[in-house]
Specification:
alpha/beta, 18% strand, binds pyrazine-2-carboxylic acid, binds zinc ion, calcium, EC 3.5.1.19, hydrolase, nicotinamidase, pyridine nucleotide biosynthesis
Length: 257
Amino acid sequence: VFDKNADGFIDREEFAFCWNHWIKVIVRPVSAFLVVDVQNDFISGTLNISKCNAQQDGSEVVEPINRLLSICSFDCVFYSLDWHPPDHVSFIDNVTMRELHPNSPVSADKAQAYDTVVFAGPPPMKQRLWPRHCVQDTWGAELHKDLKIVPGAVKVYKGTNPEVDSYSVFWDNKKITDTTLCSQLRMRQATDIYICGLAYDVCVGATIADALAIGYRAILIDDASRGVDLADIEATKSTIVNNNGVIVTSDEVPAMV
Ligand code: VGL
Ligand code: ZN
């Protein structure tokens, strides 16, 4: 198998490539469970998703997540936290702090929460505005009090740069900096990422899109996720399926994972 010169056989380097990229992924999977932004502000605080178009109750993710954490043998567990400084660019009440681009679809004096504006830059930057939420070290940024935190789990903080928003748990929206998630997954040689949490069509969707783009096997747990907008949730599901991601319900996740 390792003879470079023998016809029809692969050499050592080629075998190493196949092993690392294909065989190991199948015979020695390493699972990561990623709980996205199950924080007070999204459930009952300033960005309460139950008041948004989809009218979903964010607290309903806690039961399936806790059940999975107690039944399933994930190799590693991560909790992400949206973790903004008070002057963050995504807050509607900060919109006058920075210059808007002349072509912004909404002007600063007319802008309301959930509108999309374009900041001047350079380069110009599209940004959806949200109510002030998940400010560092406030109650709204804390994980839901009933969420089970397992020993050895890693917390990942995102959205800490005041100038750039961060929906994906991998990178900020401009891909300037990566979070500790990237290096942690590499270090553990993770192959499969199980993703759930809030909000389905915002941070959960962006995170699973990045996981699939990197090449991880990514599995979205549908009943352990809740979102903002029904049409956007459907679009998120299509994107996942079109990019070879998998959508399951929590009862379909095997205990030996
Ligand atoms: C999120 C809106 C703004 C999320 C974060 O975690 O889905 N949504 N910031
Ligand atoms: Zn945010």
